[in-house]
């Protein structure tokens, strides 16, 4: 796929990039006067219909078939014209050209919102409610998004609209509640993954597929809510690789003390280890119906010395470094130019590793994303403890933290 190509009638209008994506190259496209987002999957590849039969071909054919079935199954359940589904960005087309799969959705023009924590409480509540409503719609039909995180939420503000809305994207890792892909095939993000997802990956006994329900998304939504309202993820000890690991070890996540009690209580329940004890999205929406829930109390007065950021409250450790065991790259967080993108960025000091989203733009000259010119990112390596005892490699996305900030200027 390159700029100017026409693929199945879609004219590619921007230089393809893999910015903010893991398993795809994407670009904007145009067909019959409408703007689209088009995504080329790097894997799996679809074997030719007339390829010579062999055991390996049969496996690849089966993998491709399962991939198609999963995508078509989700598309059938989630129709773009479903009532009230306006903030769910669904596939409008899914096809293969030669051996390569493509997916198409409407193009979303994102608003500039680098710091949702600076919004007024009412603005925050509305942003979060639009996200919660989309999730509720999914959950009402027992679909788990499966990869909920800031990169998969685009923030939109229409010209004359008073409020920002959240658009939920990337249903490529979605599955029916209780029926996730096998541990070696399931995707997810190491930072936003739920405790039971981590254990499923490790094939811990008692953590079979039935444990992976919509509550997986509720855990991620709890973390994202903390991030959007305070600017940071909840705190946890550096010895843990992720919030889920801390929770699995029986630790309490450190919630920002400026949060009102109602929201603290809600987030505490949303991040419980036992998915059955987490609230459903309806309860989330109810709690956010009062913007007071997003009103921060003033910071506690401190003695001399620099104030700690919320993520460090009560922490004895220094600024949080990567919780990602596979983070090998230089840390550039905070040095990156002020993003003009739509994905919230937590502050450097308390540094939850939240990658930055792109600004869709048609001007390649503004792109600073190495990924935009360097071609597809090398396959990500799973963290050691995530490697299942199987011959196929895990598709779990390791959150590369600040490394991704450089990629974040992705301009297709
Ligand atoms: N409909 C869209 N409009 C504009 N930008 C989009 C759209 N869908 C995705 N993007 C951008 O492309 C990035 C990668 O897309 P995504 O579907 O999340 O791919 P992946 O499955 O590789 O994570 C997203 O993080 C977002 O920045
Ligand atoms: Mg994505």
From TrEMBL:
Transmembrane helix keyword on record: no
Biased composition (Low complexity): 364-385
GO molecular function: kinase activity
PROSITE patterns (UniProt xref): PROTEIN_KINASE_DOM, PROTEIN_KINASE_ST
Domain Protein kinase, residue spans: 1-293
Record key words, sorted: Kinase, Transferase
Keyword Kinase annotated: yes
Pfam families per record: Pkinase (PF00069)
Disordered: region residues: 286-412
Compositionally biased spans, kind Basic and acidic residues: 400-412
InterPro entries per record: Kinase-like_dom_sf, Prot_kinase_dom, Ser/Thr_kinase_AS
Stored PANTHER family: OVARIAN-SPECIFIC SERINE/THREONINE-PROTEIN KINASE LOK-RELATED, PROTEIN KINASE DOMAIN-CONTAINING PROTEIN
Protein name: Lipopolysaccharide kinase InaA family protein
């Amino acid at each position: 796929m390159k700029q100017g190509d026409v693929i199945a009638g879609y004219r590619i209008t921007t230089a393809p990039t893999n910015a903010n994506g893991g398993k795809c190259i994407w670009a904007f496209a145009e067909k019959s006067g409408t703007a689209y987002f088009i995504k080329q999957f790097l894997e799996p590849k679809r074997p030719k219909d007339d390829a010579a039969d062999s055991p390996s071909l049969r496996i690849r054919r089966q993998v491709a078939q399962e991939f198609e079935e999963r995508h078509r199954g989700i598309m059938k359940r989630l129709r773009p014209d479903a009532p009230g589904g306006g903030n769910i960005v669904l596939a409008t087309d899914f096809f293969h050209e030669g051996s390569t799969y493509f997916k198409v959705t409407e193009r979303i023009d994102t608003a500039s919102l680098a710091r949702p924590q600076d919004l007024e409480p009412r603005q925050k509540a509305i942003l979060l409610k639009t996200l919660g409503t989309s999730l509720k719609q999914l959950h009402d039909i027992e679909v788990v998004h499966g990869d909920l995180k800031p990169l998969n939420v685009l923030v939109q503000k229409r010209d004359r609209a008073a409020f920002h809305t959240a658009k939920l994207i990337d249903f490529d890792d979605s599955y029916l509640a209780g029926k996730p892909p096998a541990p070696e095939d399931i995707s997810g993000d190491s930072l936003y993954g739920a405790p039971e997802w981590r254990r499923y990956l490790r094939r811990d006994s008692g953590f079979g597929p039935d444990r992976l329900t919509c509550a997986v998304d509720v855990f991620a939504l709890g973390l994202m809510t903390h991030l959007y309202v305070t600017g940071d993820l909840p705190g946890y000890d550096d010895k843990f690789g992720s919030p889920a690991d801390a929770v699995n070890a029986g630790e309490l996540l450190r919630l920002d003390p400026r949060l009102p009690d109602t929201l603290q209580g809600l987030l505490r329940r949303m991040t419980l280890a036992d998915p059955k004890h987490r609230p459903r999205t309806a309860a989330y929406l109810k709690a956010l119906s009062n913007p007071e829930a997003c009103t921060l109390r003033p910071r506690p007065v401190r003695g001399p010395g620099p104030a700690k950021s919320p993520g460090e409250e009560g922490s004895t450790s220094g600024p949080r470094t990567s919780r990602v065991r596979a983070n090998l790259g230089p840390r550039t967080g905070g040095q990156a130019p002020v993003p003009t993108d739509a994905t919230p960025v937590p502050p450097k000091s308390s540094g939850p590793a939240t990658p930055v989203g792109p600004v869709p733009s048609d001007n390649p000259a503004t792109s600073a994303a190495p990924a935009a010119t360097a071609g597809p990112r090398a396959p990500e390596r799973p963290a050691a403890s995530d490697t299942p005892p199987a011959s196929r490699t895990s598709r779990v996305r390791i959150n590369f933290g600040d490394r991704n900030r450089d990629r974040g200027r992705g301009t297709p």
